[in-house]
Amino acid sequence: MRSGNTLSIEQQLELIKDFNPEQVKNALFSIPNSKSPGPDGFNSGFFKKKWNTVGVITTRVVLDFFKDGATLKQINATCLTLIPKVENPSKPTDYRPISCFNTVYKVISKLLCFRLKAVLPHIVDLNQAAFIKGRELLHNILLCKEIAKGYKRKGISPRCMMKVDIQNAYNSVSWKAIRGILHSLNFPGKFIYWIMFCISTPSYTIHINDELHGYFRGGKGLRQGDPISPLLFVLIMEYLTRSLRVAALKYKFSYHPMCANLKIINLTFADDLIVVCKADNESIKCIMEVLERFYATTGLKINRNKS
Fold first, then answer.
1. Where are the alpha helices (DSSP H) in 30-136?
2. What is the pTM of this model?
3. pLDDT digit string, tens, across residues 232-258
């Protein structure tokens, strides 16, 4: 990860500055009223309407976490519920799980997001646009169309474009890998602690037929619906980008004819991936080896059936 940009001292200090009550209020009021409540049953609309009554204690709970993390275990409870992926679901794979969080936890996660979003453009390559301030996903879409242009023409040089699907992307991420990536990018220890405490301490119950069942803790993964999850996934994909570029320099790899000048190997669309190269065995072997090492390090496996 040190083959690209890392955080400066000034950026590190900005990440761990003390939060203030106004920032806590702004974070809470940025949460839409329509967002589902967590196990405590209170959505953001309740807190907004009763802010004069609950604002002081809510602010204290949030700021106490950033001092010592002592209160988060009580509020980091998560309710898992299934929502359909298709119009008429008939089997388990037709559903996907989402996580419903207590509103106070969402405020903590939002505050971390505001800080993290400020530094992502500095450390994340331009091949990623989703969730990064000042970038448009449309740029990557247009670039893909340009790369694919003329593939049906006769006599063009061999070239390869692969659409790579990551299996159970958020659910499979290794917490150890996230910690290592944050450390290698020079994130300050206190900020890493906040992040890791948020993603590694939740307790889960399952919502079935309007009732809550079970109680267990997770061992890996990022939760769908957590504001911080997509931003952390951006950093994981940045790790993949840098791994591909290092491998391209060390091994026999030939760039896609239209991407050689810009040294483009991959384009990332959230948790979807496009990889391009010259269509030769050495280049494709290089890419596959990087993807295997990526799986071993992060827990993110390529779904060969959908790729």
1. 44-49, 51-68, 72-75, 103-123
2. 0.91
3. 999 999 999 999 999 999 888 999 888
Q: Could you give the C-alpha distances from 267 to 125, 126, 142, 278, in angstroms and in order? A: 10, 9, 11, 15
Asked whether 113 and 231 are in contact (CB, 8 A), the reply is yes
CA 77 to chain centre: 20
Residue type, 223: R
Angle (CA) 60-61-65 rounded to 5° is 110
**What percent of the chain is modeled with pLDDT above 70?**
98
Alpha carbon 86 to chain centroid, angstroms = 24
28 to 53, 78, 109, 111, 245: CA distances (angstroms): 15, 18, 10, 9, 40
| Greatest pairwise CA separation for the chain in angstroms | 73
pLDDT tens digits along 95-143: 888 889 999 999 999 999 999 999 999 999 999 988 998 888 888 889 8
Token code pair at residue 13: 């200090």
- pLDDT bucket at 1, cuts 50 / 70 / 90: low
Q: By three-state DSSP, how is residue 199 classified?
A: helix
Token pair for 34: 């329509």
Judging by DSSP bridges, how do beta strands 203-208 and 77-84 pair with one another?
A: parallel
Distance between alpha carbon 134 and the CA centroid of its chain, in Å? 17
